[in-house]
Each structure stands twice: as C-alpha cells, then as structure tokens.
C-alpha cells in the first residue's frame, strides 16, 4: 500500500520481495526438473538395455494377459513405445520416460487437492524428481515404472474424493488400482492403507454405507481380471513364483537383511529424503489419527504400513531395493507437508529444517553423479560395485557373438539364462532365433521353438564362464568351446561367457514331457513350452 504522500510502505515492499523470491524459487525448481528430464531423455536413448528390459522387450512381441514373472503392463508400454520409435532402446523406454513427467504433474495436482499452496506442491515434485528411484524408473523399463505411475493416480483419485466428496471418484480409485495390479502384484499393498483410511475417519466410514466404493472395487477386479484368468489357465504359476520369494530368498542374517533394506532405500530415495519420508509418513498417520484429519490420515495410512511391512519382511526374506519404490510419491507428499507444517508451528529444530532444505540438493547431486557414471564411467569402480554396469557392454558383446555366429554358420543361438536371452535377441541375433533351453515356462506365450533350424545348421550355446555344457551337448553329435567373451561393463569386468559350437542336432532338446530343461509345467497347453 502507499502512504498519504504517495510512497510505498515497507510492508508492501516486503510482501513484493517475498512474492518475487517465491516466484524465483518456483522457476528454479521447475528448471531443475526440466534439466533432469533432458538428461533422462539422452541416457534413455544412449544406454544399453538392462537384462530385465531386454527380457520384457521379448514379451512385447508376444502380448498376453500375463507372464511368468509379472503382470503384462510393462510389455504393453514397451510395445506402444516401439510402435512409435521402432525397435530401439529409446522406443522401449519412451512410455516409462514420459510417465515420470506425467506422474510429476499428477503429484502436483494431488498436493493441491490435499493442501493449499503452489510452492509446497512444486517442492514435492522437485523432491520426487531428485530421487534415484524416479530417474532410474525413467531410464530403465521395468514393472516398477507403471506401478509407481498408477499408484500416483490412485492417490490422486483419493485426494479428489476428499476434496470434493463426490463418490464417483471411487471409480477412478478402482480403475487406477486395477491398472497398478496389472503392472506389478505389490500394488495389493495399497489396499490395507485405503481400508485403514476409510475405517479410521468419520468421513471415511460413511462410505461403507454407499455403493460407490463397492462399484469401484468391481472396476478394479474387472481391470485386473485378465491377469487372474491367465494365472488360472497356467496353474497360478506367476502368483506361485512371487509367493515363492518368501521361501527361497531366506537371508543368512535377519539383522544384515534389515540393514541391507535400509541401505538400499537410502540409496534409492537418497539418504535425507528417505529419512524425511519415513518420519513424515508416521507423523502424517499420527496427526491424521489424533486430529481426525482425512488428508493427513490418507498420506500416513497409504505409506507407513508399507514401510513397516517391508521392514518386518526383511527379517525373513531378502527384499530388493526397488520393491518399496512405488510408495515414495505419497511418502514425499507426507514428508514435505509434515515438516513445513511443523516449521510453521515452530515445533521443529532449525537444524532439521536446514536438512529439509538441503535434502533435494543432495538428491540431485546423487542423481547427477549416477548420470555421469552411467554416461562416462567417471568413477573407476569395479563392475560388481557399479550399479550402472548392468546398462553397459551388451551391444558390443552382442556384436561379437553375432560375428561368431556368421563365421560358424550358426542357425540358432542357445542360452541358459533369461537375462542374456533378451540381450542377445536385441543386440546379437541378426535374425537368428535366440532360445533359452531351460525354464521354458517363461516363454509360454511364445510359439514353440522351431527345431528344424537346429537340424539345418550348427548352434551357438552361450553360458556363463565355466557353465556346464554337457547336458545340452548330449542332444548334439559334437560340441566344442570356440571362444570366451567378456562384457565390458566398467573396470575389471568379470561378466564373461563361454561360447560353444554344437553340431549335429539329434532332437529332443525342447521335448515337452519330462524334458530335462523344463523349469515348470503350464496347465492344459504346451507343457513347458
């Protein structure tokens, strides 16, 4: 405002300066998010496919309602991207890459639906994009990427339900949950949080007497029905495989396994963001429960139980770092809004808020360091210690095996691991069939192997260095080792492969009943083919 003599008051100048500073902060945050996205674009096009990506790319050529390892969503996304950009690494990663951009916007809208304040919403987006999880999900096409995206959509629909009170948003919740389950089975862990939120708040409990939540549940079941039917048709093999993790992946030490989980999450979310996410999730649950605030209760109920589940589970099962990744978008909302609220209420120490302000900068530093390591290998790490090594060296290895196949007149390439099967199909086949001789249940949606090709010419058998070639060689008249090749994946790489030349195929390698290489038998169709 102005004084009587036309001068601008000090209060107005202060408000204007504050507004300019906030606007500058918003622009800086958005610029950083945009810069990180540009880096992702470049690396998604340049980096070799990781083993799992190449395997999922094989799926995309044979679309089905389900697969041995996971639901089908990642195959659909890869197929969509390759239809646009061809059979390239960028095409394989394109939809996942764009989902991180779309997911950031949906998270922004979710924040605005739960809490007023554009600054807080943009800060949450910056935190999300500062995590290694989101940047890895953008560059590496795995089921975690669609799972995280549809988890954000589920949270958005619940936030709109709180904001508007309109029951129709339950249909969106159901659709998003169903799509999340079609991405990865761990989406089921969202359900207890939703039920806790409904049961623990007065506004939530009223939905028990209304039809919309039940119709939403039917929508979720309908969306997820194809993967249930596929499992039914194949003796529930995919569900059984995932359930089997709790049996076969027993850690030697419960304490070491829990410590490994915590260390993995500190790396995945970056250390300070991880700590704030855990604290913010439990604070949101406490505040929502104590004050009966649905928005806080939602954030806490969705996140805190999942953290507890994985922590307890780690004592009896080895937990991969990426498994809890889908929970970080709502956990980041809980962290950002919890500590900003505590700061306004003067209930948090200065050093904690200093750490809060530093958190995204440390996350961005971690992410940029990972980008530099992936692009240039700047830090001389041994390949076994370098997480980016799994995205390196496959194209050259594939070219070397392709050259051997041409030189020996090979009619097919055989493998014993799904990981290298996909990599060689993408980088080294040159039109030759690449066939895994064991675990044929992985390829139940594929056509049966054409064994006439093996009878028309020799085959190359690719095994990890020192692998036993005798069992496969028994189906051929002769076998000999022709080369040992090492994948160049950083310093002191030990990822080496023996290449055997097999000639005179006798038949029976892919025999369906009682074949020595069948890892499982599917229901009512081609047995293990």
Identify the notable features of this structure and list them briefly:
2 domains; alpha/beta; disordered C terminus; Pyruvate Kinase, Chain: A, domain 1; 529 residues; five-stranded mixed beta sheet
Cα shape = globular
Low-pLDDT ranges: 10-18, 512-529
List the strand order in the largest sheet.
2-1-3-5-4
Distance between the termini: 79 Å
Radius of gyration over C-alpha positions, nearest whole angstrom? 26 Å
Counting structural domains, the number is: 2
Helix content: 55-70%
Number of strands: 5
Largest sheet: 5 strands, mixed
Q: Provide a count of the helices.
A: 21
Secondary-structure element pattern, one letter each: HHHHHHHHHHHHHHHHHHEHEHEHEE
Q: What report would you give on this structure?
A:
The chain has 529 residues and is of the alpha/beta class. It folds into two domains: 22-234 and 250-376, no CATH class; 391-505, 3-Layer(aba) Sandwich (Pyruvate Kinase, Chain: A, domain 1). It is 62% helix and 6% strand. The protein has 21 helices and five strands. It has helices spanning 10-46, 51-60, 73-85, 89-114, 118-130, 132-139, 144-164, 169-181, 190-200, 202-205, 212-233, 237-248, 254-269, 271-291, 294-314, 328-344, 350-376, 394-408, 418-427, 452-456, 470-473; strands spanning 412-415, 434-436, 459-464, 476-486, 496-505. Strands 2-1-3-5-4 form a five-stranded mixed beta sheet. Helix 19 (418-427) links the parallel strand 1 and strand 2 (434-436). The longest helix has 37 residues, at 10-46. The radius of gyration is 26 Å and the shape is globular. The N and C termini lie far apart (79 Å). Residues 10-18 and 512-529 have low confidence and may be disordered.
């Amino acid at each position: 405002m102005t004084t009587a003599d036309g001068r601008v008051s000090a209060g107005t100048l202060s408000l204007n300066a504050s507004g300019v500073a906030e606007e500058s902060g918003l622009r800086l945050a958005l610029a950083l998010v945009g810069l990180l996205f540009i880096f992702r674009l470049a690396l998604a096009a340049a980096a070799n496919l990781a083993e799992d990506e190449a395997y999922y790319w094989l799926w995309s050529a044979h679309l089905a309602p389900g697969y041995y390892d996971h639901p089908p969503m990642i195959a659909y996304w890869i197929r969509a991207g390759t239809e646009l950009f061809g059979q390239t690494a960028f095409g394989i990663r394109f939809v996942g890459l764009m989902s991180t951009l779309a997911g950031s916007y949906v998270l922004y809208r979710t924040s605005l639906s739960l809490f007023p304040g554009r600054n807080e919403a943009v800060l949450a987006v910056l935190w999300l994009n500062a995590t290694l999880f989101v940047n890895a999900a953008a560059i590496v096409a795995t089921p975690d990427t669609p799972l995280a995206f549809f988890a954000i959509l589920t949270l958005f629909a619940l936030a709109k339900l709180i904001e508007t009170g309109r029951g129709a948003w339950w249909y969106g919740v159901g659709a998003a949950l169903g799509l999340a389950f079609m991405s990865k089975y761990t989406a089921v862990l969202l359900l207890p949080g939703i039920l806790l939120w409904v049961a623990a708040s007065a506004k939530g409990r009223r939905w028990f007497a209304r039809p919309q939540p039940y119709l939403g549940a039917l929508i979720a079941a309908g969306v997820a029905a194809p993967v249930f039917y596929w499992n039914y048709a194949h003796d529930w093999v995919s569900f059984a495989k995932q359930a089997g993790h709790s049996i076969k992946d027993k850690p030697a030490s419960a304490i070491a396994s829990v410590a490994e989980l915590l260390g993995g999450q500190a790396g995945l979310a970056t250390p300070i963001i991880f700590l704030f996410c855990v604290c913010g999730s439990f604070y949101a649950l406490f505040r929502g429960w104590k004050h009966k605030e649905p928005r806080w209760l939602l954030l806490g109920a969705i996140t805190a139980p999942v953290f507890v589940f994985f922590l307890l589970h780690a004592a009896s099962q080895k937990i991969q770092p990426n498994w809890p990744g889908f929970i970080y978008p709502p956990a980041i909302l809980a962290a950002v809004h919890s500590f900003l609220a505590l700061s306004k209420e003067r209930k948090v120490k200065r050093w904690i808020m200093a750490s809060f302000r530093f958190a995204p900068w440390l996350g961005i530093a971690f992410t940029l360091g990972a980008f530099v390591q992936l692009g240039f290998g700047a830090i001389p790490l041994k390949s076994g210690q370098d997480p980016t090594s799994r995205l390196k060296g496959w194209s050259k290895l594939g070219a070397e095996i392709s050259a051997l196949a041409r030189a020996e007149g090979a009619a097919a390439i055989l493998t014993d691991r799904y990981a290298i099967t996909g990599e060689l199909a993408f980088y080294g086949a040159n039109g030759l069939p690449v066939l895994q001789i064991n675990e044929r249940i992985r390829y139940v949606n594929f056509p049966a192997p054409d064994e006439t090709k093996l009878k028309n010419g020799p085959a190359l058998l690719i095994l990890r260095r020192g692998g036993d070639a005798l069992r496969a060689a028994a189906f051929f008249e002769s076998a000999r080792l022709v080369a040992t090749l090492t994948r160049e994946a950083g310093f002191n790489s030990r990822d080496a492969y023996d290449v055997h030349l097999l000639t005179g195929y006798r038949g029976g390698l892919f025999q369906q009943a009682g074949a020595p290489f069948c890892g499982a038998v599917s229901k009512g169709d081609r047995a293990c083919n």
